[in-house]
Input
Amino acid sequence: MSNLFFREFGSGKPLIILHGLLGCSDNWIFHGKKLSNFFHVYILDQMNHGNSPHSSDISYDLLSNDIYEFIKFKKLSSVNIMGHSMGGKVAMSFALKHPNLVDNLIVLDIAPKDYSIQSRFDELINSVISLPIDTIESRKDADNYLSNSIPETAVRSFILKNLKRGNSNNFLWKPNITLIAKKMTEIYSWKESSLTYEANTLFIKGEKSDYISESDLLTIKKYFPNVIIKKIRNSGHWLHVDSPDEFFLLIKNFFKLF
Output
């Protein structure tokens, strides 16, 4: 039994979509619906995110095990899987462990490596934790508060999707913020392994993002020898949001959906 919250659209060959850190299935509805013309799309809220349950621990082993349970629960024999950022690491971990269950793999703007030196999400997490959740009365209040530490409007609206109203009309975070903050080292990490995934793989990087560097290409090819690596111009880390048309075209080309 899978206890993950998910959204599903379309019919045909399954395509599982995995959001990034502090993301949720909401972030992927636009592309999920477009891709549902070609696939049976499942957009998952990963554990400790969105509407899925909270747990006492978080790691790539646990998150990829959730995907295994979901596939069993849905009685799927094999899937296509696409993950962004943290979701990309989950997708990679899963494909390396269960290559026979994955037909095609798509990884968006993340490499199979440890990111703790760059610790790029620390400030974001600190901003989220510092929000006085008990006293804010509206999303506008929250937006104003976060605007000092998170100047980019798009990133703030992405973060604010994680707020929900509680029973007494107070605000609550959907993600398990306390656990995530405690486990950032784990989330940045990557376990070296000798496993490889030999089937069709597509990596897409944002031109303005530094999550995948030139020096990562050899590592990517070591784990995923049958890889195509594409770059979307003028896009940052959230490349599917920055350049939705170009992103969709790359996916269509990869799957030969014409």
